[in-house]
């Protein structure tokens, strides 16, 4: 139902070049260029600035891309509502998630897709701040992120609150403890997230309060999978959430010992939507499904 111009224009705007858009769409670059030049001729204005380093939207292009993307969102919503009348046999859902929720989300999607096999999912992994931006921009129907900001244009649908913990091998000295003080962790080799990570910010604040000095890491890593791999290979103790290590703890490969320090604040994993923009029927059903799945995870749902 979308015009060729809308599809080509949106992809060129995202890619920043006709060549890259051509490769992604598997359409001849000349065909894409023709559609854009034709529309520029009809409008009487340029939609892109042609630069040596690529294409950049002009002011008119920014207006047009907003119209095109809004049109695409409205079309997806209309298709979803029509599908609801047909028993939701097909549809598309765009969602943005933080890495820490990936295992939980994919497990939930597997169950949901068995009930609604005709729905197509487009998942994007990003940092928490980027997840919020994608939802507000309409590039994601909803998002799952850590500790979203309190804003009037963000609606928090569900939140899973949990205590972070120390992750160690089963033969580690603290593995059998029911709890450990954050200050006691300083006696062990530590593995932490890189600076700028939401978990690292929580850890640094709590460490400053409980220990008084910055944490001394033997290694830092940019992803949860890297932190788990370092722990599994005996490099040291990591700091993660129950969701991050649910599979490894269940199979006995890792142990999660809750941090008992009051300064180690609870963390919140939230499912968010944009205020004033109701999700499509398909997205609403998935949000309900994920909300129920969150209630089954370790922690407290609010």
From TrEMBL:
Alphabetized UniProt keyword annotations: DNA-binding, Transcription, Transcription regulation
All copies of domain HTH lysR-type, residue ranges: 1-58
Domain of life: Bacteria
PROSITE patterns referenced in this protein's UniProt entry, alphabetically: HTH_LYSR (PS50931)
Xref: Gene3D superfamilies: 3.40.190.290, Winged helix-like DNA-binding domain superfamily/Winged helix DNA-binding domain
Keyword Transcription listed: yes
Keyword Transcription regulation: yes
Pfam entry (one): HTH_1
GO MF annotation, one: DNA-binding transcription factor activity
GO annotation, cellular component aspect: cytosol
Family membership noted in the UniProt record: Belongs to the LysR transcriptional regulatory family.
Protein name per Swiss-Prot or TrEMBL: HTH lysR-type domain-containing protein
Taxonomic placement: Bacteria, Pseudomonadati, Pseudomonadota, Alphaproteobacteria, Sphingomonadales
